[in-house]
């Protein structure tokens, strides 16, 4: 049996994708619409307060294209807290105007492939901070789930640790060349959801998502082993943008 990579695991993650039922919304009275908008902004304020206390983080984006209208990303210490967030949303005046399109449950993960030997990673402040990240409020988000192949010829899980380390080093080098342009949050979901990882990218320039993902397609770990689910790309929804959207 090949040696399993050790993982460091941080906050749990919920990606919650919704569509707005515009027919219902347009049929609602102005006061109902106003109450629903207020309720959504109240939820956002609660999420922001939790983030200010460093007990979790959140992101709200509108989705471009027809897969959904909104993507909410929440990070919390445990699954119960994530469940509370989705229940509160469902019960809210705004939640009643939405349809559930997709969700993804995972946990922020760092793998040990590139860890410095003899160092306790939890004692390195930057590593601890990466496990409980405050999500950047960048202009754009890109989210997709992925697997690593388990086929006869190309089975990631049967490669030696050294081979996997070498490939992850090359992967990390490409990623690092996007420093300052793209921030990545990798969350593990083996045993939690239908794919093995959630990949969430943030950038102020959406074109950088295409450039980064394209470049990685030529790198062995993605070229040989990567399998990808649907991509969701979106624009930041500030409070003003939420009010404008629902006007
Ligand atoms: C901004 C870009 C960026 C950077 C800097 C970066 C760096 C790194 C490092 C250094 C490491 C290894 C240690 C760790 O930190 O875990 C990883 C790990 C990982 N990555 Fe990555 N990645 C990026 C970006 C990045 C992208 C765009 C993708 C999607 C791949 C694609 O083809 O679409 C990805 C995937 C992953 C995954 C699934 C893992 C876990 C693999 C496992 O088997 O455990 N990643 N990644």
Automatic annotation (TrEMBL):
<feature type="binding site">
    <location>
        <position position="130"/>
    </location>
    <ligand>
        <name>Fe-coproporphyrin III</name>
    </ligand>
</feature>
<dbReference type="GO" id="GO:0016634">
    <property type="term" value="F:oxidoreductase activity, acting on the CH-CH group of donors, oxygen as acceptor"/>
</dbReference>
<comment type="pathway">
    <text>Porphyrin-containing compound metabolism; protoheme biosynthesis.</text>
</comment>
<dbReference type="GO" id="GO:0006785">
    <property type="term" value="P:heme B biosynthetic process"/>
</dbReference>
<comment type="function">
    <text>Involved in coproporphyrin-dependent heme b biosynthesis. Catalyzes the decarboxylation of Fe-coproporphyrin III (coproheme) to heme b (protoheme IX), the last step of the pathway. The reaction occurs in a stepwise manner with a three-propionate intermediate.</text>
</comment>
<dbReference type="InterPro" id="IPR011008">
    <property type="entry name" value="Dimeric_a/b-barrel"/>
</dbReference>
<dbReference type="GO" id="GO:0046872">
    <property type="term" value="F:metal ion binding"/>
</dbReference>
<keyword id="KW-0408">Iron</keyword>
<dbReference type="GO" id="GO:0020037">
    <property type="term" value="F:heme binding"/>
</dbReference>
<feature type="active site">
    <location>
        <position position="144"/>
    </location>
</feature>
<comment type="similarity">
    <text>Belongs to the ChdC family. Type 1 subfamily.</text>
</comment>
<keyword id="KW-0560">Oxidoreductase</keyword>
<dbReference type="GO" id="GO:0004601">
    <property type="term" value="F:peroxidase activity"/>
</dbReference>
<keyword id="KW-0479">Metal-binding</keyword>
<feature type="binding site" description="axial binding residue">
    <location>
        <position position="171"/>
    </location>
    <ligand>
        <name>Fe-coproporphyrin III</name>
    </ligand>
</feature>
<protein>
    <recommendedName>
        <fullName>Coproheme decarboxylase</fullName>
        <ecNumber>1.3.98.5</ecNumber>
    </recommendedName>
</protein>
<keyword id="KW-0575">Peroxidase</keyword>
<keyword id="KW-0350">Heme biosynthesis</keyword>
<feature type="binding site">
    <location>
        <position position="184"/>
    </location>
    <ligand>
        <name>Fe-coproporphyrin III</name>
    </ligand>
</feature>
<feature type="binding site">
    <location>
        <position position="222"/>
    </location>
    <ligand>
        <name>Fe-coproporphyrin III</name>
    </ligand>
</feature>
<dbReference type="InterPro" id="IPR031332">
    <property type="entry name" value="CHDC"/>
</dbReference>
<dbReference type="InterPro" id="IPR010644">
    <property type="entry name" value="ChdC/CLD"/>
</dbReference>
<dbReference type="Pfam" id="PF06778">
    <property type="entry name" value="Chlor_dismutase"/>
</dbReference>
<feature type="binding site">
    <location>
        <begin position="144"/>
        <end position="148"/>
    </location>
    <ligand>
        <name>Fe-coproporphyrin III</name>
    </ligand>
</feature>
<keyword id="KW-0349">Heme</keyword>
């Amino acid at each position: 049996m090949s040696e399993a990579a050790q993982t460091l695991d941080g906050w749990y993650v919920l990606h919650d994708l919704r569509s707005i039922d515009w027919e219902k919304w347009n049929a609602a009275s102005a006061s109902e619409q106003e109450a629903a908008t207020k309720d959504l902004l109240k939820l956002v304020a609660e999420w922001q307060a939790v983030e200010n206390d460093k007990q979790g983080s959140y992101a709200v984006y509108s989705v471009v294209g027809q897969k959904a209208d909104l993507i909410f990303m929440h990070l919390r210490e445990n699954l119960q807290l994530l469940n509370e967030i989705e229940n509160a949303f469902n019960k809210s005046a705004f939640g009643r105007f939405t349809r559930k399109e997709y969700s993804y449950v995972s946990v922020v993960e760092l793998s040990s492939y590139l860890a410095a030997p003899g160092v306790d990673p939890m004692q390195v402040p930057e590593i601890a901070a990466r496990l409980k990240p405050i999500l950047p409020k960048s202009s754009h988000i890109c989210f997709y789930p992925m697997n690593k192949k388990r086929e006869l010829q190309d089975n990631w899980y049967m490669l030696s640790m050294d081979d996997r380390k070498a490939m992850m080093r090359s992967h990390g080098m490409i990623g690092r060349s996007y420093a300052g342009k793209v921030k990545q949050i990798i969350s593990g979901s083996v045993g939690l959801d239908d794919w093995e990882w959630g990949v969430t990218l943030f950038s102020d320039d959406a074109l950088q998502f295409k450039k980064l993902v394209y470049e990685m397609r030529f790198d062995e770990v993605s070229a040989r082993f990567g399998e990808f689910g649907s991509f969701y790309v979106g624009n930041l929804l500030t409070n003003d943008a939420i009010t404008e959207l629902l006007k």
